[in-house]
Amino acid sequence: MARVNKAKAETIETTELEVVETIEEVKEVKIEKPVVEDKRVTRRKSQAQVELPMDDEVPVRSLTFGRMAYKSPSTGRIYLWDDYGTEVWMKIGEILTMDSGSPDFTRKPLLLIDDSEVMEYLGLKELYESILKVEDLKDLFSKSTRVIEDYIDELPPVMRETMILKTRQMIQRGQLDSIKIIKLLEKKFNMDLED
Q: What's the CA dihedral at 84, 85, 89, 93 to 10 degrees?
């Protein structure tokens, strides 16, 4: 508890102390922030605490077709993904740096962090759940047209592109031959998928 001297009352910063009614009553205000200790980051999530070791590595997969690179501003290291589904292992600290400095990689998303704790820590669980459905289009296309339409309407733009490319591959390989589904997808994406 802090003491307040009447002579020093004018110099008190209100971010640390709050003056209540008279100068003798002082209330200490506690500010909660993520705590960094021993290269671990702790963030309070509702009642539970999540602690991530910054030097641990987790897999990060590409969600884009073609080559992609990320250069870490803190270490200068360059991470390369050759094509869709390519997996690269990154330190959790690097992933947090990437998310704060270049959020398109994780939030658009161009990459999928394949670790549930890191995914939840960054608040990406719901977004990533929709991505995982794109990876299993065969199952999605077995559902009703209404379910498929609703699913497409909720997709982020990058995942729409991924779905178009994967659907075209399925059509070319003979894995999708339902005219009803193909017409629905062409209407939703406003393009011919059989070219």
A: 70
Degrees (nearest 5) of the Cα angle 4, 9, 10? 155
The residue written with tokens 């080559």 in the block is 67
Q: What is the pTM of this model?
A: 0.57
Place of tokens 């629905």: 184
pLDDT of residue 44: 42
pLDDT one-digit tens code per residue, 82-140: 988 899 999 999 999 999 999 989 988 889 898 889 988 998 888 777 676 666 788 88
Considering the domain architecture, whether residues 90 and 61 belong to the same structural domain is answered as yes
Residue 45 lies in a domain: yes
Does residue 154 lie within any of the structural domains? Answer: yes
Domain that holds residue 59: 39-123
pLDDT value for 100: 92
d(CA 122, CA 90): 15
- Is residue 179, in this structure, part of any structural domain at all? yes
Instruction: Say yes or no: 184 and 110 in one domain.
Output: no
Indicate whether 101 belongs to any domain.
Answer: yes
What is the overall mean pLDDT for the chain?
76
Q: Where are the extended beta strands (E) located within 20-161?
A: 26-28, 35-37, 40-45, 48-53, 57-62, 68-71, 78-81, 87-91, 111-113
The CA-based angle 136-84-148, given to 5 degrees, is 30
Do 49 and 101 lie in a common domain?
A: yes
